[in-house]
């Protein structure tokens, strides 16, 4: 390997060393165990060539001296590669890339100046500030059913089942289901009020625990959904609900029980705790849940523009299986 190595201390200026051609001599590779040529040696950037002058400049303490020394090393290395001429054919292509990269870093530092003439040191990376942590939205307001009770004309002599459920709901507590298997299914009655008329139907209520990471910020790790029994088992569904309401064990011949055990709603909803005792569906329709004894009571006031005051769906469910 041919290298240029300083043999004296001539031509020393500004901390860099540039000996004349007649004062340069060839030098073998620093590690004779390997035959690979070092790109930095051909470019004159190792510790035995002009880099020694750059190191002296870097120790001077000023940022401008550091950049100046790097500039001289880079430009001198470029000149060394040019002087080698045809003898540089032994240098591999990756080695040329390394040498040119080192020269580019030094020369770019020389040319990065402002109008004032001062050399600017450009940081290699910009550290961005960490993003602020997400803040959970405030809990939605709970619903006061006092106005709904008055709208339905509920009193001591009220005959509507919705009035009874609204009274139980107003005294209910926060619902926190215990689900050993992760899922639970309830069956019960839904009373629909439309323009003051009440209609009863058999319904289902489903819930499932989910990982907290899937719930979403500010939401409960709980999915819920409702449904109805098909008309083919409507009679058996009423018998199943009446049996569970009494606290008895349903008959194995009940045709609605297998349907209830396998029920999964087509569109489950997320849940969020309100600022009161209710849990609310994460849906466009307002649906609130509370615990009342062994039952789960749901209140869903109608928000339609053509609906009358007090219209909505009022449900009560008993646990069927979990």
Q: Sheet bearing the most strands, described?
A: 8 strands, antiparallel, barrel
Helix content: 25-40%
Residue-averaged pLDDT: 75
Secondary-structure element string:
EEEEHHHHHHEEHEHHEEEEE
Low-confidence stretches: 1-15, 46-71, 73-93, 109-116
**Overall geometry:** globular
Strand order of the largest sheet: 5-6-7-8-9-10-11-12
Structural class, from secondary structure content? alpha+beta
Please report the number of helical segments.
9
The Cα radius of gyration reads 41 Å
Instruction: Tell me the fraction of residues in β-strands, as a range.
Output: 15-25%
Description:
- With 322 residues, the chain is an alpha+beta fold.
- 29% of the residues lie in helices and 22% in strands.
- The protein is built from nine helices and twelve strands.
- The chain has an eight-stranded antiparallel β-barrel with strand order 5-6-7-8-9-10-11-12. Strands 1-4 form a two-stranded antiparallel sheet.
- Helix 2 (51-58) runs antiparallel to helix 3 and helix 3 (63-84) runs antiparallel to helix 4 (93-111).
- The two termini are 81 Å apart.
- Mean pLDDT is 75; it is low at 1-15, 46-71, 73-93 and 109-116.
